[in-house]
Amino acid sequence: MLSKKKGRLFVISASSGTGKTTLARELLKEDKNLVQSVSCTTRPPRPGEVNGRDYFFITKSEFLRRKKSGGFLEWANVFGKFYGTPKKEVERHVRGGRDVLLLIDVQGAKQVKHTEPKAVFIFLAPPSKEELKRRLEKRGTDSKNEILKRYRVATRELKALNDLKLCDYRIVNRDLRKAHAILRAIIHAERL
Amino acid sequence: MLSKKKGRLFVISASSGTGKTTLARELLKEDKNLVQSVSCTTRPPRPGEVNGRDYFFITKSEFLRRKKSGGFLEWANVFGKFYGTPKKEVERHVRGGRDVLLLIDVQGAKQVKHTEPKAVFIFLAPPSKEELKRRLEKRGTDSKNEILKRYRVATRELKALNDLKLCDYRIVNRDLRKAHAILRAIIHAERL
């Protein structure tokens, strides 16, 4: 009997405003063996977001029910909205031999490090705190208050990451084209 | 008049025992536009080391004279032996359009960050302190006392690096083949 090779789990963590969504989209487009695990969230969809592609948009009570039954690989409460990675979906892909890309924050990555220590952990860091602030402001989808909150969280995360023995690769994301080429190389190298 | 494109400076820092010498040798072999800057040192050559290829082996008084006249991009006193990167040699390569690879320790990288902030800084980290110790012992060229000293310096460096805003890329070097592929990708991406 042939035993199919299992997929790998790639965890990319980054603060808001580091361009991680754009990078993930590019990687997924060009690499047919890489799939993104779609997260569940209780926050409302932003313009252009599609249920089941960008997120599974679920109610808070549904989220809490699934969390209680151990249905999430990691989960977080971000400014009162819940986010979580459904365990079953990741397992299904990995068993099917596909590599899974998880786009989660630092707290989430810490949880995955605990449950899936063999995953590959990559952190995208902003070039500087000033640049991070500029990028958050430029995004334009958030209120001033929310930008400030995100900025505070992001700088706290950066600090936490410096102490962290968690990540296998840390990339300062100065230029999306460069970061993209290097992420691609990391995924290829890990398949060696 | 044609103005020739200047080369880039790649600074690779790693503690002893992370395999940086092997990695650099591979990169230089396959990439003809990449040259290694040969450092000066006052320590005696190890078996197999060639003057002018591995190091310029110079006397302490010669080293101090050149240091005083600002001849080094960075320099260090490691366990009583001096190491330094000759400024002129790096400048000559860069003006000639070649990319220069500097293999230096964290303290040296800090000095270069100050004088050449646009250089690309890469740090190779050992997977764990235990693994670092094992690798240092395995090398077998150093006495027990020297291994212990190197280990102490290396763990101090690791700690310093966690706080450092210095490096553009940090790679945990679990597997030489992987680290090599990713270093190559970084060099190519930075040329984009």
The coarse overall form of chain A would be: globular
SSE sequence of chain A, one letter per element: EHEEEHEEHEHEHHEH
Corresponding CATH architecture of chain A = 3-Layer(aba) Sandwich
Structural class of chain A: alpha/beta
Number of domains in the coordinates of chain A?
A: 1
How many strands in all of chain A? Answer: 9
Helix content of chain A: 40-55%
Oligomer: homodimer
User: CATH class of chain A, please?
Assistant: Alpha Beta
Strand order of the largest sheet of chain A: 2-7-1-8-9
Overall pLDDT of chain A, averaged? 86
Largest sheet of chain A: 5 strands, parallel
Polypeptide structure, described:
The structure is a homodimer of 192-residue chains. With 192 residues, the first copy, chain A, is an alpha/beta fold. Chain A has one domain (9-190): P-loop containing nucleotide triphosphate hydrolases (Rossmann fold), CATH 3.40.50. Chain A has seven helices and nine strands; from the N terminus they run βαβββαββαβαβααβα. Chain A has a five-stranded parallel beta sheet, with helices on both faces. Chain A has a four-stranded mixed beta sheet with strand order 4-3-6-5. In chain A, β5 (72-78) and β6 form a beta hairpin. In chain A, α1 crosses α7 and α5 (129-139) runs antiparallel to α6. Chain A is globular, with a radius of gyration of 16 Å. In chain A, 34% of the residues are buried. The model of chain A has no long low-confidence stretch (mean pLDDT 86). Chain A binds chain B through residues 128, 162-163, 165, 167-172, 174-175, 177-179, 181-182, 184-186, 188-190, 192, and chain B through 128, 162-163, 165, 167-172, 174-175, 177-178, 181-182, 184-186, 188-190, 192. β9 of chain A pairs antiparallel with β9 (169-172) of chain B, so a sheet runs across the interface.
